[in-house]
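question for whoever is on the cluster today: can someone run the full assembly for these? two chains, 230 residues total. i dont have access anymore since they changed the login thing
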Amino acid sequence: DTAVSQTPKYLVTQMGNDKSIKCEQNLGHDTMYWYKQDSKKFLKIMFSYNNKELIINETVPNRFSPKSPDKAHLNLHINSLELGDSAVYFCASRKTAGAGTDTQYFGPGTRLTVL
Amino acid sequence: AQKVTQAQTEISVVEKEDVTLDCVYETRDTTYYLFWYKQPPSGELVFLIRRNSFDEQNEISGRYSWNFQKSTSSFNFTITASQVVDSAVYFCALSEEGNFNKFYFGSGTKLNVKP
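^ ran it for u. tokens below:
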């Protein structure tokens, strides 16, 4: 049973299009994340939601809009796609522990290619 | 300044050699967590270990071992008798008491194990 799943796995699209990536976790976690991994493998955090509330919003173009309909889902919508948006996007989830922190578990990634 | 530094960009070894991946971190918090993740060529991010700042005991798991030294702010990862399947990019990460929600990832070390 997949713990953190993302759809689609691959996404090829033209510049200027709008696309969405979906993420779901069945771990009962309350915090979810979006990361972007560029061609040099650098992992950059984009957003985080805790119980549907935005808690981390890094410097990301406002063409990127996350949406969390419930704490098991965090979707990423991208408007007016640009060539530089080509990357692998990872979703992750984590259970917030009161006295510390738990591990982030990652989805399989979505490889976005903008032509 | 980088909170997590993985100075080794790429390492190549021959199968059965031992290899150590370095991780140096920077934090002013007394409570923090350190992590290692593995990203094989298939692309997923796999959690390997979590260590909290109060536990300096070294950890061994099969051929993997981790050396946590607060005095040098390092959390190094050693693979004993490396195998081709160990070929991957390995990431070290830090989360701090100031904001456990946010993970700081190093830039990764690519390990190539040749037969």
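summary bc i know u wont read the tokens: Chain B touches chain A through 23 residues (CB under 8 Å). The first strand of chain B starts at residue 4 and ends at 5.
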